[in-house]
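In this section we walk through a basic example: taking a raw amino acid sequence and producing a predicted 3D structure, encoded as discrete structure tokens. The instruction is simple. Fold the sequence below.
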Amino acid sequence: MAATSPTTQRFDIYGLGNALVDKEFLVHDEFLRAHGIAKGSMTLIDEARLLSLLTQLRSEFGLKGRASGGSAANTLVTASYFGSRAFYSCRVGDDEAGEFYLADLRAAGVSTNPRGAPPDGASPAMTGRCLVLVTDDAERTMNTFLGITSELSHTEIDFEALAASRLLYIEGYLVTSTSGREAAVRAKAFARERGIEVAYTLSDSSMLQYFGDGVAQILGEDGVDLLFCNEGEALQWSGQSSVTAAASALKKIARRFCITLGARGALVYDGASLLAIAPHPVTPLDSNGAGDVFAGAFLHAYTAGFGCQRAGDLASLASARCVTQFGPRLPAQTHGELRAQVLG
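The resulting token sequence is shown next.
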């Protein structure tokens, strides 16, 4: 089928990913070591571990902030604040955290699917939580209890909204769940049939390390139109020792891609050339959400027709600003200023 026409398009970006209420704490390295937490990575935990860590974190450090998170949600909220029309498919529980999550999304201008009722006689499952532990060096470490988001499936996909979207964005963390992975594959196939571009984020090196087959299943033989990853993920996926070599390898699975390089900016492939995206030197406080904000800013400019160079410039500026404050998102009012600075 033909691509979505301007007359039927209602959304610029349709996102599919986990729904997690982020709880952020400022901690020290000793806490991570004492509790056997791998610094700088995402670790899945069960409910008992979640409650135990929460009790200790609240007692020792106090809660720094709370937001409706999940990698793709942060990206969609960023794009929405920049002016994109966004829809996010997710799954939350029938609890206070779920109410908070949906209200927070909608307050940011992101449309979403209604919460489904639990089956008759079933106990309501908890909305997912992510404990974001930030150390003095601005590194973020995540301990994630998926809760009901582990049950996200194709039933949460609003195919009508997807059919009326410019681009599908798939969160890499979905590979940890069989039903989530199947939903990603199904959404991608649906988008392909309708000429809708597909973007994918590798999300975290642990997804490649422990769920590599699932990542390969989502990428499929046809790859994706746009891929997001950081330097470590690019090197791990490609098995190369340099970013340049990794970029050459990524061309096999992505028509365009972005490799974020931290304080060194980013490398973007626009389908023809590798573009060096300049960094913005800052003093980092919290790296949580920087990659998500980069993707959201890039997707906004990309789907608005500004091209990969200017999309990368906006993404670099937005992600640099993000790490100078606590939390995974920029204040809503900041986006207009950054957009005007880069896109005019």
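Looking at the output, two observations stand out. DSSP finds twelve helices and 14 strands in the chain. The first strand starts at residue 11 and ends at 16. In the next section we compare this with other chains.
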